[in-house]
Structures are given as structure tokens and as C-alpha cells.
Design a protein that fits this description.
Largest interface: A-B, 36 and 31 residues
Distance between the termini of chain B: 60 Å
Oligomer: heterodimer
Order of helices and strands of chain B: EEEEEEEEEEEEEEHHEEHH
Order of helices and strands of chain A: EEEEHEHEEHEEH
Largest sheet of chain A: 5 strands, mixed
Strand order of the largest sheet of chain A: 1-2-3-5-4
Number of strands of chain A: 9
Largest sheet of chain B: 5 strands, mixed, barrel
Distance between the termini of chain A: 53 Å
Helix content of chain B: 10-25%
Number of helices of chain B: 4
Shape of chain B: flat
Helix content of chain A: 25-40%
Radius of gyration of chain A: 18 Å
Structural class of chain B: alpha+beta
Chain lengths: 233, 230
């Protein structure tokens, strides 16, 4: 069985409808919400602040710490076990790796910048939404960053190459490849590249180009949200 | 030399945004050069002065700077001084000799001078490369705060609340009848009649919200005269 048309009627290279808002958590130093289709990520940034336990402190630079958390009711009916697990730890780590290249905390030795991302509603592409929201929240917190990273999943569904897979596409019966990509929109550098499924090497290059185009679109949404925070009332 | 400045003066710039192109334009604070282009590296208000482009930050936590007058909170008593929270990633140390003129014998109870939880107006006198901060209370206007209340505002907005040569804060003081001491770290001490205190807090919140919009002084003057009469 082939995949003649996307389940939700989108074009092959079209990301789901996006929405972004900055400053959603008043008590945080910076915060942002990012929604792409039915996936919602809320990011809150605290810091740079004092880091404890003390053995984690680095006297040469501040460190970045990301926490990824799917809320128990966020998925497809099954309760997600709270408190984090193997998967949440891994995604926290890949988020740190995706964001660290753009930020410089050398001016803040012995400190930490904490990024907490909660996902109240999920429909695949959560790590990408989390990175996109975290980037906006970090900018809102006044952290110096070379670019605003953004992320999107690309891949193969049955015989077609698509951008921004939703859960139904990831679970297609003919098999799928889900490739989350985080990129810096200005330079086109890749800071996250993972893959679940299989794809031909030549096709991978093709979908990465699709990803870059989508990431530029996402970046426009990020920029607009950051500017809207200070718009005239 | 060809140059193009993409950003308008006094508009919001976002990290990764190309602000200008051409080697004759210079990158200031909050920007960096990438080839021909000048790129924004932090969220804030762009300021174009001649050929220099810089970003005035609108958010971010306070970082101690030499010579700043701040309001601190005593969090610990050390062998010969006090540890002071500065509302920044780094706490400060105030030595006894920088705090009081009295002779303090060895083993004296330092809590008699400053107890845990006291708020004090202090000045930053030294910062090391690892951000060990020394503060003093010897100087005009530096003292222990008695009564009143502390308001928390964003440290990036304090310069707007104070105004040029303190014009804005003087306006609030006159309209509300409160004593106000602003700390550069975003802690502001207010003491006055309850009605006046509430009005002063509201005024500061309004400035915080509209700090980046032009004509702030005029608007605040109108707002204060309108509300002070009630």
C-alpha cells in the first residue's frame, strides 16, 4: 500500500500550522510556548543562576541544563509515567547538544542556565517542538546566542518524503523514517540529527534540504513571536 | 564602501537577525560580525549611532558591575563579615571593616549589626574574574533599610525607572510622597503611606511594561497627576 496523500491533507513539504508566544510564564526569567499541529511545548528558562550541587560547577563557563517532560495526559490515551525516564533523559541531553553551540556562557562561570520544557499535548515531533520553544525562551531570558536554533522532523512515509511527521504518519503500516533535525537557520549548520527507521543515503540529503526550508519558516514564526512581546499595546 | 543598514533605530532585534552589511559598519555590544554582515546576538532594542550598531538588552538577570549601587539581603554571617544576596548568579561578601566604623572585638556577635534577612544598600567595590564580589557600606546613601518594602523589577528596566539624572524617580517620589531607593539589581525599596506605596508600585510596573516605547516620561507624568489626586 502506497501513501498517495497525507492523512491531514498537507503538502509533502508543508509543516503543520504553527503558533508561538513568548513570555507565557511570568515568574521565569524567560519563557515561550510553541505549538505545531497538535504538539504543544512550553519552555521556561531560569538563570544564569547559582549551581548546586557544587561539584557540577565549571569555573571556566556556565553550563546549560535541559529538562524534557511529557505530561501524563499528553499522549494518545496511555498515561505517560511522570518523573522522567530513560527517554526523557536522552531527549534532555540531545536538546542541550542542539542548543549549546549557539550560546556562550563564558561570562558566567560556576553558574547554570536551566531550561524546563513541558509538553501538555503531543502528536509526534516533541523534541523538535521542545528545541524550538527552548530557543525562544532563552532569547527572552536575555542569553546571548549567535542564532535562534529551530527544529523539525523530516523523513519517509511509505514511498513519500515528508516534512513534520505526525503520529499517524510515524506509525504508517508500510514503515517510515523519522529524522528529527535541528538547524541554525542563518548558517544552515545542523545541531541535531537522529533517525528512527531507514532511508537511502541519497534520499537523506533530499529530506535535509526540505528540513532547511521548513526551519526557515519556523524561524520566521520564532522571530515574530519575540518581536510581538514588545509590540505597542 | 557599500553598506546597508537593515534595522531601524529603536526597533526590536532578535538573535540571528542580520542588522547590517558592509565592513564600514561596526558591531557593538550584543552583536557580532559574520563575514560582511553584522548579526544580532541578543534580544533587545537596536541602537544605530553613526556606524556603530549595538543592542540595548530588555531582559536578563542582573550581573554585578563595579561601582553599582544595589540593594542586598544578608543571607549568612561569616568569620569577619556578611554574605549578601545580590539577586544575581553571584553572592557578595561584605567585610566588617567595610560595614561599620565601631571597633568589633574578636568573637563579637555580628548579628547585632546586620541580622539574617536584613536588606542593605551597598556599593560594589571589587569583582574578580571568577565573580567573587566585594561590597561596601561606606559611602553616601549606603545604609541598612528599616521598614518599608522591597519591590522586584527587571534589572534591565531600572535605568528607565530612575530616568535621566533621576528625573523619573523624582517624579514618582513627588507624586506619591514615598521615599524610594532603587538598586541597580532590580530591587527597589519603598517607604511611605500605604496608598502612596501602592501607587508607586503601580507606576513602576507601568514603566517596566512600557520601558521600550518612546514618550515614556510624558505619559508617566500624565498618569501620575491623574492618579495622585484620587
Amino acid at each position: 500500500m502506497a501513501y498517495p496523500k497525507r492523512f491531514d491533507g498537507r503538502a509533502w513539504d508543508e509543516p503543520r500550522p504553527m503558533e508561538a508566544k513568548v513570555g507565557v510564564v511570568p515568574r521565569a526569567d524567560g519563557s515561550a510556548m510553541f505549538r505545531i499541529g497538535n504538539t504543544v511545548a512550553i519552555a521556561a528558562v531560569y538563570g544564569p543562576r547559582d549551581l548546586h550541587p557544587k561539584f557540577m560547577q565549571n569555573p571556566e563557563t556556565g553550563i546549560l541544563r535541559c529538562d524534557y517532560n511529557m505530561l501524563p495526559f499528553s499522549g494518545h490515551g496511555d498515561r505517560v509515567k511522570p518523573g522522567g525516564g530513560r527517554r526523557a533523559r536522552e531527549i534532555g541531553m540531545v536538546m542541550e547538544n542542539a542548543i549549546r553551540p549557539v550560546i556562550d556562557l563564558k561570562d558566567y562561570p560556576n553558574t547554570v542556565v536551566d531550561v524546563f520544557v513541558d509538553l501538555p499535548q503531543t502528536d509526534a515531533g516533541t523534541r523538535c517542538a521542545a528545541i524550538t520553544a527552548a530557543a525562544m525562551a532563552l532569547a527572552d531570558a536575555g542569553i546571548e546566542m549567535k542564532e535562534l536554533p529551530a527544529a523539525v522532523a523530516v523523513g519517509r512515509v511509505s514511498d513519500k518524503f515528508v516534512v513534520d511527521l505526525n503520529y499517524d504518519e510515524e506509525a504508517h503500516e508500510d514503515g517510515a523514517a523519522d529524522i528529527p533535525v535541528a538547524m541554525l537557520p542563518r548558517s544552515g549548520k545542523v545541531t541535531l540529527l537522529q533517525m528512527d527507521g531507514d532511508i537511502q543515503p541519497a534520499d537523506l540529503k533530499k529530506v535535509l534540504q526540505m528540513a532547511h526550508k521548513a526551519i526557515i519558516k519556523i524561524n520566521e514564526v520564532q522571530k515574530a513571536a519575540l518581536k510581538a512581546r514588545f509590540a505597542d499595546k | 564602501m557599500t553598506e546597508t543598514i537593515h534595522i531601524k533605530d529603536k526597533t526590536i532585534a532578535v538573535p540571528g537577525e542580520t542588522l547590517a552589511e558592509g565592513m564600514s559598519v561596526l558591531p557593538g555590544a550584543g552583536t557580532y560580525r559574520d563575514g560582511d554582515a553584522i548579526v544580532c546576538s541578543r534580544l533587545g532594542l537596536a541602537s544605530v549611532e553613526d556606524k556603530v550598531i549595538k543592542i540595548v538588552p530588555m531582559s536578563g538577570v542582573y550581573t554585578p558591575k563595579l561601582g553599582d549601587h544595589i540593594i542586598g539581603k544578608v543571607t549568612d554571617i561569616l568569620l569577619s563579615g556578611w554574605r549578601v544576596e545580590t539577586r544575581s548568579p553571584y553572592s557578595a561578601v561584605m567585610n566588617t571593616k567595610d560595614a561599620v566604623t565601631d571597633f568589633i572585638p574578636r568573637g563579637a556577635n555580628l548579628a547585632e549589626y546586620f541580622a539574617l534577612g536584613d536588606h542593605i544598600v551597598i556599593k560594589i567595590v571589587n569583582i574578580t574574574s571568577q565573580h567573587l564580589v566585594d561590597v561596601t557600606m561606606k559611602g553616601p546613601g549606603l545604609m541598612k533599610l528599616q521598614g518599608g518594602r522591597i519591590v522586584e523589577v527587571s534589572a534591565a528596566k531600572v535605568p528607565r525607572i530612575v530616568g535621566r539624572d533621576g528625573s523619573m524617580i523624582q517624579m514618582i517620589k513627588d507624586a506619591t510622597g514615598c521615599e524610594i531607593i532603587p538598586g541597580q539589581n532590580g530591587w527597589i525599596w519603598i517607604k511611605g503611606k500605604p496608598q502612596g506605596e501602592i501607587l508607586a508600585i503601580e507606576a513602576m510596573r507601568a514603566i517596566e511594561r512600557e520601558a521600550h516605547l518612546p514618550g515614556l516620561t510624558e505619559r508617566m507624568k500624565a498618569w501620575l497627576t491623574q492618579h495622585a489626586k484620587r
